[in-house]
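Subject: two folds for Thursday's group meeting

Dear M.,

Sorry for the delay on this. The cluster queue was jammed most of the week, so I only got both jobs back this morning. I'm pasting them in the order they finished. Each block is the input sequence followed by the predicted structure tokens. Could you check whether the formatting survives your parser before we put anything on slides? The first protein is the one we discussed after the seminar.
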Amino acid sequence: MWGNAMHDLTGFQRDLLYVIAGQDDPHGLAIKEELEDYYESEIHHGRLYPNLDALVDKGLVEKGELDRRTNYYALTQRGHRELEARREWEERYLDAEAAEVSL
């Protein structure tokens, strides 16, 4: 069964979780650049930071200060559990699709 919080997230917020989980140094600019590469378009601060704050508010991400101008973001234990539950949920359907294709 997948977690309670993931169904409330937008696709963009889920992508933020994946990027934060996959980066060694997840700070705002690095997250922004990774998403811009993926989406092949500019991600505005007015979109990025309110969504990061929403993930913090949901208890999926923690936010801290690297210095006066730079915040870091890290998944909480709950964030890790939610991503793992989402991965398991997706794999059920991907495995079923792969089985159908091989028939």
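Second protein, same layout:
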Amino acid sequence: MTKTFKKSVLAAALGTASFVGFSQAQADDYVIDTEGQHAFVQFKINHLGYSYILGKFEEFEGQFHYDPENLEASSFEMEVQVNSLNSNHAERDRHFLSDDFLSAGDYPTATFVSTGFEPTGDTEGVITGDLTLKGETREIEMPVTLVGEGEDPWGSYRAGFEGSTILTLADFGIDMSDFPEIMQELELYVTFEGVRQ
């Protein structure tokens, strides 16, 4: 999980709220809806050049702030429980969590804290922030897109986003030198729905 994930995913996955229908909402704080399972922190990495390994982190929390009048003040933060990794293969997951890769015993959480947001269109932009993974903090950029926003059937107001980025694993102290070059990077994908507070 390199360039974007401190992504705790990451984090998940994001000052994204920055571009929510610029003229619609007021400056508001949102909490990512993990209780309703409307958010995901997922990853994809090539397997020896033959296929891909897909996985996710199942436990995380986060929040974001969106100010349509001052987009630069928008922010996002997320914390991911590294031990919640699930690639649908228990033995492989134990290996991923071991000192060979994530050292989850010493570094149980990953975090992402945004430092800026630059809109690139009406419903998209690039979020910049610090991702901390395995004790290493790196600045990453993640293009993000507004999926949608509005009132839900239960009287709450929601906004949802998605974003992805490529992380160089060595940037976070994950040694992949014994594997093919194509496995040196990982794609991080984050999608989340926030409930306005």
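Two things I noticed about the second structure. Residues 1-26 have pLDDT under 50 and may be disordered. The chain has one helix and eleven strands.

Cheers,
T.
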